[in-house]
Amino acid sequence: MGAALTVAGASRSFGGVYAVRDVDLTVEPGELRAVIGPNGAGKSTLFALIGGQLAPDAGTVELDGRRIDRLPAHRRGLGVVFQAARIFTGMTALENVMVGAHGTTRAGFVKAALRLPPFRAEEREIEARARECLARTGISEWAGRPAETLPLGQQRALQLARALCGQPRLLLLDEPASGLRAGERERLAVLLGELRREGLTMLLVEHDVGFVMRLADRVTVLDLGRVIAQGRPEQVRADSAVIDAYLGEAAA
Ligand SMILES: Nc1ncnc2c1ncn2[C@@H]1O[C@H](COP(=O)(O)OP(=O)(O)O)[C@@H](O)[C@H]1O
Ligand SMILES: [Mg+2]
Question: Does the first or last residue of the chain, that is N or C, have fewer Cβ atoms within 10 Å of its Cβ?
Fold first, then answer.
């Protein structure tokens, strides 16, 4: 079962301007929470505060009641799919996914790869898991290819496979459908639905409002770094502040 996430009073500014300001967010175990909002609303910054890529100026992040905001990113028990594709070049797609099982560092992977025979069995297990993750994300046929030669859609799937290979308790996805073709987008929606039924907790930022409204249990709307609305998709869709800040803009 996925973990509960509690963000309390999270703030982060850049050059005196708040990107995220006093954000509270509670996600139930197994919930698929969408985070929407206009460009620059602070969605990616909030993700980075949760994921550990950025330090907050104030606030706490807890997973199942344990503070994780002082832990390094790879020790937080999270899987992260970043907005911009992040792959390790000079490694195959399969190796990229195996990195996910080693705490998401290339160094950890290289160290593990150099380990002596007693550790090889563990390595084989990880390889099997990585192949499963490649299959789930639909890119098995790319396993042996250098990661940087994969087309964009497959690189995005690769990131998701890597995140899943780390067996996260919470999955953070920052615009995972951006740049995908319709078929790839549909496949992603199906996979996210499956993961949700398996009980994985997910936080999903997405620009395509239709995409998130269909998948999310609840939706949090950010604008100018603050939470301006939160609720079930149909409640949020009807909220006038949301329409003003975002849906109106999207419709215009
Ligand atoms: N590393 C950074 N340095 C300076 N400003 C930043 C940085 N990251 C984000 N910002 C600013 O913070 C605000 C929120 O950005 P971001 O979190 O990327 O928004 P979103 O993901 O919702 O589009 C924007 O005004 C952006 O310019
Ligand atoms: Mg963003």
Answer: C
